[in-house]
Amino acid sequence: MNKPVLIIMAAGMGSRYGKLKQLDPVDEHGHMIIDYSIYDAHLAGFETVVFVIKQQMQAVFKQKIGDRIAEIMNVQYVYQQLSDVPDGFSVPKGREKPWGTAHAVMSARHVVDSPFAVINADDYYGQSAIKAIYDFLVSEKEDNAHAMVGYKIENALTEHGYVSRGICETDEDMSLVTINERTHIERHEDGAVYIEDGVATIIPAGTFASLNLWGFSLSMMDEIEREFAIFLKNEVGSKETASEFYLPFVPGKLVEENRASVKVLETDEKWYGVTYKPDMNIVKQALNSMRENGKYPDVLWEDKH
């Protein structure tokens, strides 16, 4: 079996944040959140990283991130393109919004030939979480066995607005039973709530949430491609311009149809991200504290060449 690779979804432009947040430094040495994730991945054992980006981003992305990381890991680039649809389908007139996170992963299907992990470019996941996914990928031999890291919902929220999370139900063996994408989750005084059709529903503390830290066998690429065709056929009408093909939908459907298993790897790590501009100071403070406590060196890559 080929060694697992890391896919980083970096095509989003951060509409709520206001600009290309993936390239904003989070410390005095110019590191970005993505640097810390790649550092953790390299520490865990990953040797290859695949960046999913927009084609127009490549020059600046290579300059700011890729060329530097290429000195430590094998680096590949793929483009998430709206026109990347199966034969027999076309992009609806007026559609400008990207197809979503599952489509972003599908964009890497021509360069990935091994089990793979998936993360977002603008989320901090924590060392133990990324190590757990790597260890799963190198030990699991079944083609239809996958994993995700489950964060406690109270550790996966911002203080400054709403977020989208896959809310999970597990069985006694910590296998995924269902996952529902909730696109508007807020922190309230009673805890986390999701809002749908104007109705607020409490999410109990300790509920597992997906932050798109997944570990998949290679078979998942075929499943995503197959489900994307079904999505286009069933969900996207001639006037549709906004529906998204979310990554959790595919493993969730496979589990419901008893065609795959997803192990939920519990973590006590706390998520940090920059969904909104005020989040940046919280991220900076948290990472500074981790460096002061010796979790990270001041300059991440100086001893990795």
Describe what this molecule looks like in 3D:
The two termini are 26 Å apart. It is built from 7 helices and 13 strands. Helix content is 27%, strand content 27%. Helix 1 links the parallel strand 1 and strand 2. The protein has helices at 33-44, 58-69, 101-106, 127-139, 219-235, 249-256, 279-292; strands at 5-9, 48-53, 74-79, 116-120, 123-124, 145-152, 163-170, 176-188, 191-196, 199-203, 208-216, 261-267, 272-273. Strands 1, 2, 3, 4, 6, 7, 8, 9, 10, 11 and 12 form an 11-stranded mixed β-sheet that branches. Mean pLDDT is 91; it is low at 13-18. Helix 1 packs across helix 4. It has 305 residues and is α/β, with parallel strands linked by helices. The chain has a domain at 5-145 and 208-245 and 272-292: Alpha-Beta Complex (Spore Coat Polysaccharide Biosynthesis Protein SpsA, Chain A).
Q: In a nutshell, what does this entry contain?
A:
With 305 residues, the chain is of the alpha/beta class. Helix content is 27%, strand content 27%. The strands form 2 sheets. Strands 1, 2, 3, 4, 6, 7, 8, 9, 10, 11 and 12 form an 11-stranded mixed β-sheet that branches. Strands 5-13 form a two-stranded antiparallel sheet.
What CATH calls the topology of the domain at 5-145 and 208-245 and 272-292 is: Spore Coat Polysaccharide Biosynthesis Protein SpsA, Chain A
Annotation, overall tally of beta strands: 13
Strand content: 25-35%
Mean pLDDT: 91
Helix content: 25-40%
Query: What's the CATH class of the domain at 5-145 and 208-245 and 272-292, please?
Result: Alpha Beta
Structural class estimated from helices and strands: alpha/beta
Q: First CA to last CA: what distance?
A: 26 Å
Poorly predicted runs are: 13-18
Query: Could you say what the CATH architecture of the domain at 5-145 and 208-245 and 272-292 is?
Result: Alpha-Beta Complex
Number of helices: 7
**What is the CATH superfamily of the domain at 5-145 and 208-245 and 272-292?**
Spore Coat Polysaccharide Biosynthesis Protein SpsA, Chain A
Rg (C-alpha, Å): 19 Å
General shape: globular
Order of helices and strands: EHEHEHEEHEEEEEEHHEEH
What does the main sheet amount to? 11 strands, mixed
